[in-house]
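Many introductory courses stop at the sequence. We go one step further.
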Amino acid sequence: MSRKYRQRGYRDDESGAAARREPGRPRERREGPRGRGLGSPGATVFRCGQCGRRQELAAVAPDAACAGCGADLHACRQCAHFDPGSPLECRQPIPRRIASKTKRNDCELYEVKRTQEFAAETASPSDAKAAFDDLFDF
């Protein structure tokens, strides 16, 4: 008895060994990174957690503030070890919890939060009409 649509699964053993096919050769494995953005040139940057402005990657002084919004840079929110899900909200062993995560503190374990930036910054046109004209090459 033949089935109309030949779906696999239910009552497969009735068709016998004639319907079985040989397995194909194994997939070829490519070496190297795969995925979006991997392997492309990128820069390691430090950005303000409040406004997103790029900051100097050098060591941050305890009294440093963002030039864009004035937020304290030597604060828990700007630290690489900050994790709201961890005990005391820090991945490092600290003696006491720091109450305000956005205020300046004197933690010795502070480390700048570095992020990898894959997209290059594009220069925004200063004139909207010039940008529109550039689209159509008038």
